[in-house]
Design goal:
129 residues, alpha+beta, 3-stranded antiparallel beta sheet, 2 helices, 8 strands, 47% strand, globular
């Protein structure tokens, strides 16, 4: 339920525009190395870093290669609602390296992934302790 409330707050804040702040909103999702999986799928056009957060809730990061562009996508699924966020990235290789870095940090003890929605409509994603 706490995850669903955080998801609702993130969704509401994502729609609000605060011209003075570089970061409009942020969400920290608790994660665990034993509930994490990194996969690559040519069929789905990218690499996924998936976290099973329990209770029918999930959180995934995806590097997606479209036609001519690469994106970092964030999928949050709660028990009552879900949302998807995306942001352009420099290239697919850099994005996948970033996901691998998050995976490594979670493996050595980072307990949360922080998602920042920035004023310029880009996303920041990082593992934190």
């Amino acid at each position: 339920m706490k995850f669903a409330k955080s998801l609702l707050v993130l969704t509401v804040l994502a729609g609000a525009v605060t011209a003075q702040a570089q970061i409009e909103s942020a969400l920290e999702v608790p994660v665990s190395a034993d509930k994490m999986e990194m996969t690559t799928s040519k069929l789905n056009g990218g690499s996924f870093l998936r976290f099973n957060t329990g209770g029918g809730q999930s959180f995934s990061l995806k590097c997606h290669q479209g036609f001519g562009d690469a994106k970092l996508m964030v999928f949050l699924k709660g028990s009552m609602m879900s949302t998807q966020l995306s942001s352009p990235v420099e290239n697919m290789e850099t994005c996948v390296q970033h996901l691998s870095g998050i995976q490594e940090q979670v493996n050595v003890g980072a307990g949360k992934v922080r998602i920042e929605i920035r004023h310029d409509h880009t996303l920041g994603v990082a593992a934190i302790r």
